[in-house]
Amino acid sequence: MSKSPCEEVEQRKHTQLPASVLYILRIEGLLTAVLTALLYARTGASWWLFAALWLAPDLSMLGYLAGSFWGARIYNAIHAYATPATLAVCALLLHASAVLPIALIWCNHIAVDRLLGYGLKYPAGFGFTHLGAVGRARRQPMQAA
What we know:
The chain is built from six helices and three strands. The protein is mainly α. It has one domain (20-138).
């Protein structure tokens, strides 16, 4: 019998990532943020566009209005590098130069989130991430969704 995602998280909640792994993941976020900002600068796109769209991926938090299971799925789909990377590849292959800056802004947002410790979400709640608990979740036990 397979375990639900919440049961798996509950089982692992006392297992913290080693500090060395968290350090590497945060440095990776920093380097990715710097690289995407440098690439964005080379596109010649407006920094006003960067500022205006930078928080757009966080609109995926509205998925939590449908519950923590769907909220986590929607948030993770938007906060995984695969989605903006696919957009960037399509922009390059189709010579759609107006789309590439959007993909770079999106990747930069994800990278800064990871740098700050905000990871992909578990269905147990918004504060439970693959990088550890954040916010109020650090102070409370995990509840099954």
